[in-house]
Design a protein that fits this description.
By secondary structure, this protein is an alpha+beta fold. Helices cover 29% and strands 16% of the residues. The chain contains 12 helices and 12 strands. It has helices spanning 2-9, 53-66, 77-80, 97-102, 114-118, 120-124, 133-136, 156-170, 174-183, 243-254, 264-267, 338-352; strands at 13-19, 25-34, 39-40, 47-48, 192-193, 239-241, 271-272, 280-282, 287-289, 297-304, 307-314, 319-325. Strands 3-2-1-12-11-10-9-8-7 form a 9-stranded antiparallel sheet, with helices on both faces. The chain has a 3-stranded antiparallel sheet with strand order 4-6-5. The chain is globular. The two termini are 19 Å apart.
Length: 355
């Protein structure tokens, strides 16, 4: 099936994985991880998982709540109020941890601000540790989009702030806190921080030459080293992974097995995304389609220049599917139906396997 999609849509390469209700993982790959070098894509080839990382960050916040280190009801000011930029945030005194988790804080999304895109090259060409507070600065001084808790707008900036909160309450880097509580205990061996340009084994990603970030069509050098620093994503995503690991993560998360303390009621405590889109909600780092032809669907998508990922759990059937593609051409500008078509095909295949 994956090879058929490769032939029809012409993307460089892709991986896909299915988790059955008992946790059995099946994975496949097609195409090339590096067109110029002729390197084949394999099921073990990692790619940037982008915003699927939000599910790991959000689940870590729930773990920290269970540990008593924070509460979803905490005001953000209780943890970051002493930062010099804090009072310049939109809605500074009203934002709670829960607002950030659900994208209801009224914060703009720095990723889509012209100022961020115009400064992309300068921001992402530096190696080494990236300071996430540079991202927060793009929304400082702006008017809130709405009063905290009164509407929904997706905001990577909100998750960058959650990363800072995680660091504040644990005293360790946010991705280290995620690894300690989730990645390592769950044996997600092919999931690791995307915090530098030289990520081992990463598939080369390809973009449209007219992309808004000024990237060349091939976004890595001849050795496979990224031409930009993915650490710029911070806790808005922040991980590379494989489709098999993503499917395993989704299976464990949505079956209630990811943590010892009960968490599903908190994870799936959701808010409506849009009054004109009934049935679509956002929980704690998870998108929820409450009523589809295949029953409720939980998951998250991921996009970052040159990489597209999808993770979806079909609760009525207990199956989880994931895929990754090493190009965003036709996806970033919504001119291709590749993502929904592949999601649907993988879902039907997975469900057919348990009948």
């Amino acid at each position: 099936m994956l090879e058929d999609f490769h032939e029809r849509y012409g993307f460089p390469g892709a991986t896909a994985a299915i988790s059955l209700p008992d946790g059995t993982i099946m994975s496949a790959a097609t195409g090339l991880a590096d067109i110029e070098a002729g390197r084949a894509m394999t099921p073990e080839t990692p790619m940037l998982a982008a915003s699927i990382g939000k599910s790991l960050v959000a689940a870590t916040v729930l773990a920290l709540e269970a540990e008593g280190l924070l509460s979803r009801d905490d005001l953000l000011s209780a943890h970051l109020g002493d930062r010099p930029w804090f009072d310049a945030l939109p809605n500074p005194g009203a934002i709670t941890i829960n607002h950030l988790l659900h994208h209801t804080a009224g914060l703009p999304d720095h990723v889509h601000l012209p100022e961020f895109q115009q400064n992309w090259t300068q921001i992402t060409t530096r190696d080494g540790e990236f300071d996430p507070e540079r991202l927060v600065a793009f929304v400082a001084g702006r008017e809130p989009l709405f009063e905290a808790g009164q509407a929904w707008v997706y905001s990577d900036t909100g998750y960058v702030l959650l990363g800072l909160v995680i660091e504040q309450v644990t005293g360790e880097a946010w991705h280290e806190a995620v690894a300690a509580r989730l990645v390592n205990p769950l044996d997600l061996q092919d999931t690791f921080p995307s915090d530098r340009p030289d990520l081992p084994g990463l598939a080369v990603g390809y973009v449209d030459p007219d992309n808004p970030f000024g990237l060349p069509a091939r976004t890595a050098d001849a050795e496979g080293r990224l031409l930009w620093n993915p650490a710029v994503e911070s806790a808005g995503g922040g991980f590379a992974s494989t489709s098999a690991d993503l499917a395993r993560w989704g299976h464990l998360l949505f079956s209630g097995e990811a943590m010892e303390s009960p968490y599903l009621d908190r994870l799936l405590d959701a808010v409506p995304v849009d009054a004109e889109a009934p049935g679509i909600f956002y929980g704690v780092g998870v998108a929820i389609h409450a009523d589809t032809s295949r029953g409720p669907v939980f998951g998250h998508g991921g996009w970052i220049p040159a990489y597209v990922s999808s993770l979806r759990h079909y609760a009525a059937h207990g199956v989880t599917v994931a895929f990754q593609i090493n190009t965003d051409t036709g996806v970033a500008d919504d001119t291709s139906d590749l993502v929904p078509a592949l999601e649907a095909a993988l879902a039907d295949l997975a469900i057919s396997l348990i009948r």
